[in-house]
Write a structure and sequence with these properties.
- The complex is a heterodimer.
- Chain A is α+β, with helices and mostly antiparallel strands.
- Chain A has helices at 2-17, 83-89, 92-95, 154-165, 168-178; strands at 22-23, 34-38, 51-56, 64-70, 99-101, 106-110, 113-123, 129-139, 142-150.
- Chain A has one domain (2-178): Protein Transport Mog1p, Chain A.
- In chain A, 28% of the residues lie in helices and 33% in strands.
- Chain A is globular and about 40 Å long.
- In chain A, 40% of the residues are buried.
- Chain B is globular.
- The longest helix of chain B has 22 residues, at 2-23.
- Chain B contains 6 helices and 34 strands.
- Classes of the chains: A alpha+beta, B mainly beta.
- Chain B: This is LVIVD repeat-containing protein.
- Chain B: Residues 1-22 form the signal peptide.
- Chain B: Keywords: Signal.
- Chain B: It comes from Bradyrhizobium cytisi.
Chain lengths: 181, 481
Amino acid sequence: MRRAATIALALAALGVSGVGAYQLAPQPAPTSAHWRELAWPFPRDGWPAGRAFRCEGGACDGAELYIRAKRGFCNCDSGVADDDEVDRVADIDLISPRFTATGPGEVVHVGEMRGRARRYDLAIYDGTSHAAVGVAVSRRCDLFVAAAQGRGDANAMQHAALALLETQEMKSWLVAALDGK
Amino acid sequence: MFRCVLTAAALVLFAGSTFVHAQKQTIGAPPEASNMKLVGANDLQARSAYQPTIHHQGDRWIAYIGHHGGTDDVPAPVNPMTGQAEPNGTSIVDVTDPAHPKYLRHLPGQEGKYESGGAQMVRVCDGKSLPKGDPNAVYMLRTFGSEAHEIWNVADPANPALITRIGGLKDTHKSWWECDTGIAYLVSGAPDWRTRRMTQIYDLSDPAHPQKIRDFGLPGQEPGSTGAVPTELHGPISTGPNGNRVYFGYGTNKGGILQIVDREKLLNGPKEPTPDNLRLPEISRLPMSAFNGAHTTFPMLDMPVAEFAEDKDGKTRDIVMIVDEAILNECGEARQMVWFADVTTETRPMMISSYTVPEASGQFCQRGGRFGSHSSNESMAPVYYKKMAFIAFFNAGVRALDIRDPYHPREVGYFIPAITQATDKRCIPVEGGERCKVAIQTNNVETDDRGYIYIVDRANTGLHILELTGPARAAAGLPKN
């Protein structure tokens, strides 16, 4: 009984640290950033739910990141061709339908997938504004998208989000999601 | 006892696997059919097919068939008539004798594979019906891949002549052309719009001199807008000046919208693409589930409904049939199907019924390729209009629906062509690679005034010309054959 309780306590402790927590710095420190997994916060829409994370510590502290696969993207050959495509598909509109790009986007890679990232000003329902980053990359006819938002610097959010997506665990999950698993 | 249970279980498993196996299409096997039969066929040079349009010109019946781009394996199939490798474009086939269709000409399209090349869409108008057309000409409006719309004179269908080209686009798709006015609703990607597909409205009454009327789309898609971008256009269908409505379908397999638009206000209202000007001609919208898109929005107005015949009001109904498009192979998405909307009270459109092929009737999720609807016939010729609808259902072939009571549509026939050596594979990702299957992918369907049904295959199997038989024929009011 005591042994079972010990195991339960250990599991609970692991749970608190978060299955989806990813260290971005080699040594844990008060200023290091890690992403803690959250429940998917949005109502059901046309695509299955993805995964959500909150950044704790570091330059992205407080930012949230939402990622998911969108299978069946039609433009199989040209992929994510332009910034308008990022506006349309990157799930920024899940956070708020009122967003404005702050400038042209840029080419980004996630694993072997190529696409674009773009930064936005996001009008929040309470009258405040957040910075946001939309990322869309493609694998043949399928898309992988990420949207990050927070009060901090968009550059730091984008850097931290892409670093998370480049971890081996996330890359494995991403491939499985694009395969429909 | 245990042995008996094991034996029974094994038999059930064996029977199940045999049944599933029996659903897999094999070369040489006969087509699957009910109340529909094959009249004739053409392989269309093994090119992936989209829109067929059947036109009665003189004493001939000509089928114009748009193609997608080539495949990874065969980007530009060889045209046996020229001996040249040609990017997929438009097939022109004489179907005057539907039992012996005669391939006349392949008109190459834009280089590129799948949706990135070819010449998917085609509409045809006689010069004598267009207000300023050459009465001796027959005009074919087609897309040229994603970059242009073209008009050809096909009075001699074996020797088309290019008349004009509207280029500089980032995409094209399922356009509509009013032959009595020349007004064309061209599904285009204007470079400065935020959506891949919107509408460019042209006066093509004189096909040699296209006159731009305006750009149109949903507010949020126009140049300079910000925020969420509404679902992109798939295609419109106009009822012309008499009906004064245009029914726009937005979406493919997600977030569909039926938009009902006042044609007069659309054509003659303020044209600058501001949010207010884009909203002005809109009468209403019917947002669909996020699970479904609107590939085809086919109006059937003033339909008498037998069930309502004794009612003091609402004896006839205005119906729009909405067809979603399945995109993913092997049921990798929510079911795409057919919906019927009652739009009699235009500002309060309501879905009233739906139709899908029962998956278990053919184990269609296991056959390979897409399963689900794609498109319907769009001919409004009296032979079938408001009585029968034909739905292209990918690996479930074509489905004939009795729609005389649109509140209760009923399947009365089907035809699934046999696969051939030309039928292309369809693959899904599996651990570390792909698994592929070969199955019919009936993509589009059209009918002619004689009652023949033309279906074409996305997986390169070609054109099949069909007719109704038995009870389906009787339901359409056709004489026995």
